[in-house]
Design a protein that fits this description.
Elements: H1 6-19, E1 23-26, H2 31-43, E2 48-49, E3 59-61, E4 75-77, H3 82-85, E5 90-91, H4 94-105, E6 113-121, E7 130-136, H5 139-148, E8 150-151, E9 166-172, E10 182-186, E11 191-195, H6 200-203, H7 206-222, E12 225-227, E13 230-235, E14 241-247, H8 254-258, H9 264-269, E15 272-277, E16 281-285, E17 291-294, E18 299-303, H10 313-318, E19 324-326, E20 329-331, E21 336-338, E22 350-351, E23 357-358, E24 373-377, E25 394-402, E26 412-414, H11 418-426, E27 429-431, H12 434-437, E28 443-445, H13 458-471, E29 478-482, H14 501-512, E30 518-520, E31 525-527, H15 541-548, H16 552-567, H17 575-589
Parallel strand pairs: 1-6, 3-19, 4-5, 4-10, 7-9, 9-11, 14-25, 25-29
Antiparallel strand pairs: 2-3, 6-7, 6-8, 10-11, 12-16, 13-14, 13-15, 16-17, 17-25, 18-24, 19-24, 20-21, 20-22, 22-23, 26-29, 27-28, 30-31
The structure holds oxalic acid (OXD) and manganese (II) ion.
Length: 590
């Protein structure tokens, strides 16, 4: 036992009584204990130890083939009143759900060891951090939680004596039975129960379950925000750093933007980009009214395929030590790993993610699962910010929303106000790509990129956003929207993307500093072409004009679709957003 907190001990005892493990182990976070667990997992073949010269401290794990991704249809928000979960979440009455899950958890850890993992989301000692305890029967979970959170006995330093303010997470692999797989949140009880999965997003309960779903609910009640956002800092040649947070739906390049490498023109001048976070931001209003953000995580749970030296050098570097790879290909030649998009040279003598012999030169099958992952410590990242552990967070100058839109949305635009910015976030959308669905241009609305992660009624969530702006007394960050994905008549991306996205971030910061004016359009402020630095780019002003242009007929259609989308939130949609929609329609008319 690592604590005398009565609430913790009482809850742990209840879970022991329910799951009936053979043995209970408290995870103190010591290297000694972790090494023992690594050895045990290697002995049982749960982990494969990789080449310790080339990939020091790295391991490979394979999940079952039926257990490779988050399961949104099995993810529930259980609140007493259905209305509090809202129209975008699966709901079940908490008593009914507890009853059903208790049956599944009853005796589930017989002949197994129960691990009790205390962890902190956010730096130890920070007023912005929160404590969680995850109980699990999986060593893989323990070792991943060690990378993704501040895990071990120090987490209790953040929990005041007999405080009840900790998130209770219970996980069991059980039989990895997809028919009885449940990822369930009880926000009113600070509780998460997850069963029959061993895939990261479903079982590393500190991440999506706590740091987004439960935390968003806590944030609403306590006056802060938990968001699906990266955080980065841009340092100018004088050493002044400005911070930006950005929310994009999946597959829109959040990790890449967070770890951006500046183009030559900026590097030469002495600009640098620093990574604070790549997935989640917790945001509080400081005494000065500004928004301060921490990354509650301690590592990156990144998608492996497509990660290479060119697309994301910093992410790749992060995976070279102390990393756990899940569902990538195993190169037997030198006991390393490989995935599609790592390089043009797939291994011939390998094992694929399913565990079958695989020759990458000949096989038409993929070596790595498309959602294969690396869990890498943030400290490995060459661009990790010096403020990564800052207990007060970093002050945000701008918030960016974005998605993948072939035509409608310009490269970048700025909202007229905080309220208008909330409208832009609430109506955020991305078009599916041909690769993903076979049908191009299907619009999926994903407000603030939080659709699968908002732990309460999304209409109330929009209201909370509006209120946060009011509380900040004009000191809230400015809100922008970006779209790296405009295409030409041949369907090719016009904007080069990757490092060159810094050019857009620089315009955003200039707007925040009041250094440049902008064109007022019906949808927001758009850059004057002269204010975007195209030096060293093979892109002329005419083309830039094109990707900054706004097609009114497309936007009239967009407004109609937004009106339709808003109907979903009838009863809780804030008046302010209805008003913003009307304002947009009026501006489009004039
Ligand atoms: C993630 C996700 O894994 O958003 O970060 O799905
Ligand atoms: Mn994410």
């Amino acid at each position: 036992m690592l604590t005398t907190n009565k609430n913790v001990l009482k809850w742990v005892q209840e879970m022991v009584d329910l799951c009936k493990p053979e043995k209970v182990v408290w995870i103190d976070g010591s290297e000694e204990q972790l090494n023992e667990l690594r050895k045990k997992a290697v002995d049982s073949k749960e982990l494969i130890e990789l080449n310790q010269q080339k990939l020091k401290g790295c391991y490979l794990h394979r999940t079952k083939q039926n257990d490779v991704a988050r399961v949104e249809d099995k993810t529930f928000i259980c609140t007493k009143n259905k209305k509090d979960a809202g129209p975008t979440n699966n709901w079940c009455d908490p008593e009914e759900m507890y009853e059903k899950l208790r049956k599944l958890f009853d005796g589930v850890m017989k002949n197994r060891t129960m691990y009790i993992i205390p962890y902190s989301m956010g730096p130890i000692g920070s007023h912005m951090s929160k404590v969680g305890i995850e109980i699990t029967d999986s060593i893989y979970v323990v070792l991943n939680m060690n990378i993704m959170t501040r895990m071990g006995k120090d987490a209790f330093l953040n929990l005041k004596e007999d405080s009840n303010d900790f998130v209770r997470g219970l996980h069991s692999k059980a039989d990895i039975d997809p028919d009885n797989r449940y990822i369930v949140h009880f926000p009113e009880d600070n509780t998460i129960w997850s069963i029959n999965s061993a895939y990261g997003g479903n079982v590393l309960l500190g991440k999506k379950c706590f740091a987004l779903r439960i935390a968003s609910y806590q944030g609403k009640n306590e006056g802060w925000m938990a968001e699906h956002m990266l955080i980065l800092g841009i340092e100018d040649p004088q050493g002044d750093v400005k911070y930006i947070a950005a929310a994009f739906p999946s597959a829109c390049g959040k990790t890449n933007l967070a770890m951006l490498i500046p183009p030559e023109i900026y590097k030469k001048e002495g600009y640098k980009v620093w990574t604070v976070g790549d997935d989640i931001a917790w945001i509080k209003i400081g005494e000065d009214g500004r928004f301060y953000a921490i990354n509650p995580e301690n590592g990156f749970f990144g998608v492996a395929p497509g990660t290479n030296e060119k697309s994301n050098f910093n992410a790749l570097e992060s995976t070279k030590k102390d990393t756990i790879f899940t569902n990538v290909a195993h190169d037997l030649k030198d006991n390393t790993v490989w995935w599609e998009g790592l390089n043009e040279n797939p291994p011939e003598n390998a094992v694929d993610w399913k565990g079958n012999p695989w020759n990458g030169k000949e096989s038409s099958e993929k070596g790595a699962h498309p959602n294969s992952r690396f869990t890498a410590p943030a400290r490995n990242c060459p661009s990790i910010s010096k403020e990564f552990n800052n207990k007060n967070g970093v002050p945000l100058s701008a918030i960016i929303f974005g998605g993948r839109r072939a035509k409608t949305t310009p490269l970048v635009y700025e909202s007229f106000s905080w309220q208008h910015g909330v409208f832009i976030g609430a109506t955020m959308a991305s078009e599916t790509t041909a690769a993903a669905t076979g049908k191009v241009g299907v619009i999926r609305r994903d407000p603030m990129a939080m659709l699968p992660f908002c732990g309460y009624n999304m209409g109330d969530y929009f209201k909370h956003w509006i209120e946060m702006g009011e509380k900040s007394k004009e000191k809230a960050p400015k809100i922008f929207n970006v779209n790296w994905f405009r295409t030409d008549e041949n369907g090719k991306f016009i904007w080069p993307g990757y490092g060159d996205n810094m050019r857009v971030l620089m315009w955003i910061l200039k707007r925040c500093n009041g250094e440049v004016d902008a064109e007022k359009t019906s949808i927001g402020f758009v850059p004057k072409t002269k204010d975007l630095n195209l030096n060293g780019l093979n892109l002329n002003e005419e083309t830039l004009k094109e990707i900054l242009s706004i097609d009114k007929s497309l936007w009239e259609k967009e407004a109609e679709e937004i009106e339709e989308f808003f109907k979903k939130f009838e009863g809780t949609l804030p008046e302010e957003l209805k008003q913003e929609l009307n304002n947009l329609k009026e501006r489009l008319k004039s």
